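Recall the central idea of this unit: under ordinary conditions, the amino acid sequence of a chain determines the structure it adopts. In this exercise we apply that idea directly, starting from the sequence alone.
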Amino acid sequence: MSATGAAQRTTRRVPAIAVEGISVGFGDVRALDDVSLEVPAGRVTAVVGGDGAGKSTLLRVFANRIRPSTGRVRTLGADRLGYQPATSGVWGNLTVSENVDFVGRSYGMASRAIRERAPELLERAGLAEARMKLGRDLSGGMRQKLGFVLAILHDPDLVILDEPSTGVDPVSRVELWRLVSGIAAGGAAVLMSTSYLDEAQRAGAVLALDQGRVIASGSADEIIAGVPGVIAVLPTDGDGVETPANAWRRGVRRHAWYPEGGAPAGASPIGRPDLEDALIALTLRRRSTPAAPEGGGTAEAAPTHDESHTGAHVESRTEAHAHAHARHRAPGPAATPISEPSEPERGPGGNVLADAEGATRTYGSTRAVDDMSLAVDAGEIVGLIGANGAGKTTFLRMLIGLERPDAGTTALFGGPPDSEARRRMGYVPQGLGLFRTIEVEQNVEFTERVYGGPPAELPRALEEVRRSIVAAIGLGRQRQLAFALALSHGPELLVLDEPTSGVDPLARARLWDVIHEQAARGRGVIVTTHYLQEAEQCSRLALMSRGRLLGVGSVGDLTAGTTAVLVRSEQWEAAFAALGDAGLPTMLTGRDIRVAGVPSDDVRAALAARRIEAAVDAVAPTLEETMVLLDRAPGSAAESAVAS
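Accordingly, the structure predicted from this sequence is:
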C-alpha cells in the first residue's frame, strides 16, 4: 500500500492523546520537568533533544510504561498502541517471519490475520526477501524497519517510535519516513523521537527537550521564527582557530548566535535558519541562564529487559572484552595527557598509520568486504561512508586486527595489527566498548591499567556520575565516557565507528571540534558517520557500497557524474508520495524533496499526473543522492562514475 493509498482509508476515531504538566524523577534525578504535549490523530509529532534530554522517558509515559509523579496523562491502552523501543524491539535469535508471528500473537491476533497483514507490511518495508533472515543478521536499517513493522502490525491508533532512524543510513531513513508518513496519513496518531532535525522539520509539531525541560514547541516554522537575536556564518578559518562558545560547526562552516542581534563585522547573518540552527541557539540560551531541575541533572529510565535490550547489553560487553583482551599487555611508559600531546611516532611506512591492501572478509555466502584498499595518514581525517550493510564496521575491525581478512593484508603503524600496535590507538566502537555493569570510575581504572598511563580526564557531566553504574547514566554520557577513555593515553590513531550517533547537534559539533584538534596535532583519524553533513569535515571520504570501495576523494569527487533535481511545493507530502509512487529515487531535506539521476521533465510529469504544483530545479548533487542511486542500482552508471 502506498502512502497515497493509506490516506484514502476511512478516518479513524482516535480520542484525545496528551500529557499536561508531567514530571518524572528517578531517585534524585529529574528526567522530565513540567512537560505538556498533545499528539493529534493523522499527524506525526516529533520529540527532539540529545541523549538524556528525556525523550525516551516521555515516550514511555505515553506507552503506559512509566507513571509520572505529577501531571495528567491521556493515552490509549496496550491493545490500541504500538511501541518501537530505541533498541528496535527485534529479537535477534528469531527470523523476520518468526518475529512477526511472535509479536502478532502477543497482541492477540489470529494466525489468519497475521498472514493477511504481514506480507503487505514486509513488502512496503523492503523486507519481503529477508523473511528467513535472523534478526541479528539484518543491517541496522533493515532491523529498524522490521521494528516499525512489528509496532504497527496490529493496526494501532497510536504509534510510538523511539528514535527509529538513529544509526540508520540516509537511504533507509527516507524509506522509514515513507512508512511513518503513510501510517499517519491513514489516521493514526504518530509520536516519534529523533536526533535528526531534518526529520523533525517535516513533522506537524515539534517538542524540543533539554535536560528534561521544554525549550521549544510548535511547528518547525514557529520555532525558527521564535529564536531571538541573529544567527550568522563566521568567516572561514583554519582548524587551529578555537570555536567560540556561541558558535558551532555546520559542515565546513561555523555558525554563531548573537542573542542581542547585530552580527560583528565579517559574519554574514543567515536570512532563514533551519531547525538545527534554531534549536542549537535555544539550547545555548537555556544553558547560559540555567535553571537546573532538582537533583542537578537528568536521566532516562532504565531500559526494560526484553530480549532485544539484553542482546544490546551483551554485544556491548562482548565488544569491551574483545577490545580489552586484544590490547592487554604489561604496563608500558605513562602516556602523555591529551592536554599536552607529544609528537606522534612515525611507523616504518612514514606517515601512514593504518593501511589495508585487498582486504576481503566473507561470512558464509556473504562477502562483507571485497578487495578493499585504503590508508590513513598522520594528521588527516578519513570519513568512511555508506549505507547500513556496506561493510564499514567489518573493514574497521579488520584494519585494527579484531578480525582477520580472508584475503589481503592490513597493517597498523607499518606492522601487523597486533595488541602492541593497538596500544598506540584509541577506539570507539558502535557498542562503545564499555563495561556497563560496573561504575564509571571502575571503567576509568581499567583503561588506566591496560594502557599504563594516567587516568582519563572526565568532563564535568561525567564527574557528577563517577560512582554510578555505566548502564544507568544514559547513552549520551556513555558516549562521552567512551570518547574520554579512547583519548586518555594520547593515541596516535583514532578509530571512531559512528561516534556521534544519537548525540544532539551542539554536542556533535563539540565532538568534531575535538576530532579536528587531534588531527591538527598530527594524529590520524578514521571515522564512520551517517550524518553526511559531517562528512564534509573530513580530509578525504571513502565511499563503500555492498562491501566494495567505490571511490576516495572530496564530496565533489564522489558526486561527479550524478545529477539531481530539487522539488519545492506547499503540498510537499503529496509531492513526496507522488514521486515515490512513480518509482523515482527521492530524498528529503526538511520539507524539500530531491530526486537523483532523473531528468527534470520526468519529475514534472510525475507531479502533473497528480495535479501537484511545485517548483522543479536542477541543483548540485549531494552524497545522499549518490548513495540512493548506488543502493537502487548496483553496477549502474552511477557506480561506474564514482569508481572512475
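Confidence is low (pLDDT under 50) at residues 1-10, 290-350, 634-638.
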